[in-house]
Structure to design on (276 residues):
């Protein structure tokens, strides 16, 4: 069987659909708590029958750098998405790093698509969708869209239209647990109907930013994820679950926001106006 070379890494065409899910912001403490109490039966089964481990994220531990590391298979130093923003030294203005032109490595999605495989990419937030979609030929049955703008999809831009009708769910709120659940529901529908060889599903960390592991809302969310993961796995696929980064407490013990003003620290170290 011939191998594909993507960013100097060799891959083989999967014998059955390969589905990767990025659970945005899924700190290991969430899974550890729920697994210890038997509340995630499908993930527990995956651990027993497959492989599980804890990995370090790329630095900085933001959504875009780590999703790009996952989807290119190479670190930030090679794919170039080094943060949420970079400082344009010509204008001294911050520039958001979501432009596909800034991605310097090929995505695994486009690499497999160029080799003739059918691929699907679904993200929660549209800011990530455009980079994941870089160089992806949508004229050959490939699909790429975001749950955020599922009501605006077109064949030309996303490879699919009428997504809400197709999935049978209303448009989820941008800041809601439903946004992530929609990604999985849409992925499950496409997996059953089209059987793509490679599928990437990237969720949002709304719940993890809002609720600690002990909150009932967080448990409810993870149990819904677990149920959908079970349905995905039942479709005779290779399923991989990962996270793009962990989480940390957003407030101090007295409930004050846990904030470090980096500019003040830089000014104290180097002098005011010497660093941005």
């Amino acid at each position: 069987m011939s191998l594909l070379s993507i960013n100097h890494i060799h891959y083989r065409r999967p014998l059955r659909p390969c589905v990767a899910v990025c659970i945005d912001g899924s700190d290991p403490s969430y899974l550890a708590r729920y697994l210890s109490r038997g509340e995630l039966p499908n993930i527990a089964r995956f651990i027993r029958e497959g492989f599980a481990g804890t990995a370090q994220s790329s630095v900085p531990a933001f959504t875009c750098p780590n999703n790009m590391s996952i989807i290119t298979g190479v670190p930030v130093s090679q794919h170039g998405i080094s943060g949420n923003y970079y400082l344009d030294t010509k204008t001294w203005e911050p520039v958001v790093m979501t432009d596909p032109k800034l991605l310097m490595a090929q995505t695994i999605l486009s690499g497999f698509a160029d080799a003739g495989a059918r691929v699907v990419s679904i993200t929660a937030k549209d800011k990530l969708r455009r980079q994941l979609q870089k160089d992806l030929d949508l004229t050959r049955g490939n699909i790429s869209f975001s749950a955020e703008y599922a009501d605006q999809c077109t064949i030309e831009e996303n490879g699919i239209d009428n997504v809400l009708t197709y999935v049978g769910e209303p448009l989820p709120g941008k800041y809601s647990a439903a946004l992530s659940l929609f990604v999985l529901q849409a992925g499950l529908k496409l997996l059953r109907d089209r059987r793509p060889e490679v599928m990437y599903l990237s969720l949002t960390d709304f719940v993890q930013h809002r609720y600690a592991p002990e909150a009932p809302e967080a448990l409810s969310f993870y149990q819904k994820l677990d149920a959908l993961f079970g349905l995905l796995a039942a479709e005779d696929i290779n399923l991989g679950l990962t996270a793009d980064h962990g989480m940390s407490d957003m407030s101090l013990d007295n409930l004050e926001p846990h904030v470090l003003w980096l500019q003040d620290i830089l000014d104290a170290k180097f002098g005011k106006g010497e660093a941005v």
Notes: The chain is about 40% helix and 15% strand. The radius of gyration is 20 Å. The longest strand covers residues 18-22. The mean pLDDT is 95.
